[in-house]
Amino acid sequence: MNKKFNILMIIATIIFLIFVSDGFTKTGYHDIFTEEINIWVYNPCELEWVLVSGTWYFNIQLVIDSAGGQHWKYHAHHNLTGLSDDGTKYQIISTENKNENIKDDGAPYEWSFINTSPLISQGKKSNMLFKVRNKFIVNANGEITVSFSEEEIVCRGEKP
């Protein structure tokens, strides 16, 4: 894993912390909300773009321990429907989980992210399963002990 990716993840986390800081209390933060989305998703199994829409559900929680450590949990799921240019209907029911543990001085630090997003064809086209798994750990000495990012795309079913 390159350092640019790791730095990008840390910057994204800091921006996220700033974004939700209005909901903080002395012991933490918790919010549940939804967002309506319309996005384009690429299906590499069929070499096509699919316009999907629906509701994205979020559950974000922060617990601050007695030593000042911050423990973030983020869970999102969505149930989306889509339509390709040729009229094929798709369903996407996915989950996304992020966890972050950090001390006030930045180390030790742990961040993980898992996303599973199937794109299920309602016709004869192939189904696509997209998985992402990331992990980043810095020990108390500030040394990176774990750093990886895995992506997997699996095509299932028959092409017409």
How much of the sequence lies in strands comes to over 45%
Gyration radius, in Å: 19 Å
Give the number of domains: 1
Helix content: 10-25%
Count of distinct strands = 7
Main sheet summary: 7 strands, antiparallel
Sum up the overall morphology in one term: elongated
Order of helices and strands: HEEEEEEE
Please describe what this structure looks like.
It is a single chain. With 160 residues, the protein is mostly beta strands. It has one domain (3-156). It is 11% helix and 62% strand. The chain contains one helix and seven strands. Strands 1-2-3-4-5-6-7 form a seven-stranded antiparallel beta sheet, with no helix packed on it.
What are the SSEs and their pairings?
Blueprint: H1 3-19, E1 28-43, E2 48-64, E3 70-84, E4 89-102, E5 109-121, E6 127-138, E7 144-156
Antiparallel strand pairs: 1-2, 2-3, 3-4, 4-5, 5-6, 6-7
Keywords:
160 residues; mainly beta; 1 helix; 7 strands; elongated
Task: Give a summary of the structure in a few sentences.
The chain has 160 residues and is mainly beta.
